[in-house]
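Researcher: Final request for today, and then I'll write up notes for the group meeting. The sequence and the SMILES for zinc ion follow.
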Amino acid sequence: MAKCYMCDEESTSVEHSPPKSFFPTDKRTNLITVPACKTHNEDTSKDDEYVRNIITMSIENNQTSIDHFFDKSLRSFQRSPGLTSAIRNSLKDVSFYKLNAKSFQLDRPRFDRVIRKIAYALFYKKYGYTWERLLAATTNQLKMEDMTNDHLGDLFETLSDDLNELKLKGENPLVFQYAFIDFGIDKNDKALFMLFYEGFPFWIIPDKTSNQNSFD
Ligand SMILES: [Zn+2]
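Model: Predicted protein-zinc ion complex:
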């Protein structure tokens, strides 16, 4: 068996990345997998679903996302009263681009953990070695309470200036595409762009001062 994508242990299974639940059953061509050890193949399907539900709610996504929301996310909300009430209890009226909308509080640490996991797996798949960096995730789709961007929002905007130059990869582009760029000279200094459902982007930025990896 190959070694694990996160550590030097031998792998005992394979992990799908992004998780299978993000992909409608008719859009699962050559899903990406990586080898994982016992520690790193922990069952995170509840967290995966949580993130999938939030991402598919974005109104900037494509029809595949809307269909998947009604097919899977809505049912998943109905099955988990905890998630629904967590959102309902934190609903607020907000004004966003002069639209009246509702906002809710997000468990960002839980959310980012899933996103980082995907990033580590994609890196291992592409380069064949473990991404030995702590990672930060930034997106313009999740707003702070005052409706400003997250703490890396400026970096997100800067990196996104040349999106057209990126050669996005992904065999199910309606669900997921990604691209790496060099972000420095060290073999770990790459940044990763990920795009879900053609509308929900992330930049994953490595912390250059770190030389370890962690989902947390
Ligand atoms: Zn491992």
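Model: The chain has five helices and eight strands. The chain has one domain: 13-207.
Researcher: Thanks, that's everything.
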